Every structure is written in C-alpha cells, then in structure tokens.
C-alpha cells in the first residue's frame, strides 16, 4: 500500500522564475525507508514540504497535480489533518523547537493535537524510549548537542504516532558518529512500521540504511532505485 503518492506534482514559488518541482510522480510504499539526494536547488526541501502539507498550506505559489497522504488529498484537508499522518523535522531545527526543555517540547505537540490527559504520559515515555533519550527528559534544550536536538525533534513527532516521517538533512550539522545515531533512531522507527523519507547528502548513510534512493535534479526525478542501482550509476 502507498503511504504517500505524488501525482504529477509541479510547484512554483510566488516570485520564482522556474518550477521548484516539475511534474514529479512518486509512490512511497508504507514501511519504506527512502533517501532523497541531489544538488542544492534541486527541489529536495520543496518535495519534503509537499509531503508534509506545508505546500500548499504554508508556502504561496502555484501548485499542480495532487499529493495523497494516508488517502487524503493534502489540498483538500487542513494542515493539522496532514500533520497527524506526516511528521516533519525541518532543516532549521532551532526554529522548530518551541519549548525550553525536552519534556515540554514533547508535551506541546500532544496538547496541541488534543490528546487526552490519560494518554499523554504514556505517549511521552514511549517517544523518549523509542528515540533513545529517556536520560534527556529534564534537560534544557539550549544545552543539547545538535544530534540530541534532532532526537528530541524526532521524539516530539513520534509522540503523535505519525505513519510517515519526513526529515530535511537531519545530519547536516552533525559529526559522523552523531549522524549514525540519528539514522539508527530512524531505523528503529522504520522497524515499527513508520515510513521514513529523509533528505541526506551522505552516500554512505543512504547506502547503509535506505531501501530506496531518489536523486532529484532541477525539480525532476533523475534516478530512483535501490542504493546499489542508484550509486553504481554515478
Ligand atoms: P537548501 O539548499 O539547503 O535547501 P537553500 O539555501 O536553498 O537551502 O534555502 C534555504 C532557505 O531559503 C529555505 O527556507 C528556502 O525555502 C529559502 N529559499 C531558497 N531559495 C529561495 C528564493 N529564491 N527565495 C526565497 N527563499 C528561498
Ligand atoms: P533543495 O532543497 O534541493 O536545495 P529547494 O527545494 O530548497 O531545493 O529549492 C528548489 C528551488 O526553489 C530553488 O530554485 C530555490 O531557489 C527555490 N525556492 C526554494 N524556496 C523558495 C522560496 N521560499 N521562495 C522562492 N523560491 C524558493
């Protein structure tokens, strides 16, 4: 079954001269672990925004085609409905954090989505445990390393139990060891059935963890296959 389906999606940001995405059709199978790679400006962040519903709900521009998540057409439902199904970790992790400490960061989303009080404590501990950060529960976010912050962002989304998680270069600011730890966490989520779509520039990580790699170039899909197929090509 498809977790996400993009049908002939094109998007041009208001004021831009060319399309950020140009007739992209992709099906992301439920439970898959997909890496997206490509040069700067290729449309990777735009693709993530389409999957998360930020396009068309947040960014102004011309949208064509359709994006279906969990059977919903993102253009026809509210952004909060999309966010229940698709969690996203933005490139600017500091801008995404809303609370002062880790526990509050996780509580914020749960309260926002209106989860019942009785369910909240269970969800917080599940999220901390699954992201492997139970020891960080009481920590101030400003004292955390980049890798720890990524895991907090992942935990805050996990608490909502999305079916799909989209991450925009979660390892960009991380050293190799922390990068691997983030991918180990993603593998753990994926093992629980969450579809993972991650923008990542490090070929070694994509080769080791992903079952599919999509190469974007100038708003189009240039290559799409297993890591072996894609990387033997270049
Ligand atoms: P990356 O290549 O790592 O995705 P960019 O440098 O392309 O990052 O973009 C950084 C930020 O600037 C993003 O939030 C993106 O939406 C925004 N941005 C990129 N290009 C433009 C543009 N031409 N006009 C306005 N905002 C832009
Ligand atoms: P990537 O993530 O692969 O670097 P992006 O999706 O950020 O690519 O950008 C794709 C194209 O869209 C680029 O030409 C970029 O300049 C443009 N773009 C991105 N964000 C904006 C924005 N907010 N406003 C206008 N143009 C943008």
Automatic annotation (TrEMBL):
ABC transporter domain segment(s): 4-234
Family, as annotated: Belongs to the ABC transporter superfamily.
Protein name, as recorded: Energy-coupling factor transport system ATP-binding protein
Native organism: Parafannyhessea umbonata
Lineage of the organism: Bacteria, Bacillati, Actinomycetota, Coriobacteriia, Coriobacteriales
Residues of the full protein shown: 230 to 463 of 809
């Amino acid at each position: 079954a498809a977790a996400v389906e993009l049908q002939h999606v094109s998007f041009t940001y208001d004021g831009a001269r060319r399309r950020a995405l140009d007739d992209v059709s992709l099906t992301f199978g439920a439970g898959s672990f997909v890496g997206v790679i490509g040069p700067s400006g290729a449309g990777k962040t735009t693709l993530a925004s389409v999957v998360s519903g930020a396009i068309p709900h947040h960014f102004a521009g011309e949208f064509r085609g359709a994006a279906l998540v969990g059977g919903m057409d993102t253009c026809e439902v509210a952004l909060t409905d999309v966010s229940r199904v698709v969690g996203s970790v933005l490139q600017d992790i500091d801008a995404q954090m809303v609370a002062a400490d880790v526990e509050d960061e996780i509580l914020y989303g749960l309260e926002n989505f209106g989860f019942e009080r009785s369910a909240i404590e269970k969800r917080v501990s599940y999220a901390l445990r699954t992201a492997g950060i139970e020891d960080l529960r009481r920590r101030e976010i400003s004292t955390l390393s980049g890798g720890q912050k990524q895991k907090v962002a992942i935990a805050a989304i996990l608490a909502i139990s999305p079916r799909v998680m989209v991450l925009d270069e979660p390892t960009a600011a991380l050293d190799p060891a922390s990068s691997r730890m983030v991918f180990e966490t993603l593998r753990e989520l994926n093992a629980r059935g969450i579809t993972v779509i991650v923008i990542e520039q490090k070929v070694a990580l994509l080769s080791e963890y992903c079952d599919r790699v999509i190469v974007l170039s100038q708003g189009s899909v240039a290559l799409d296959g297993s890591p072996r197929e894609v990387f033997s090509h270049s």
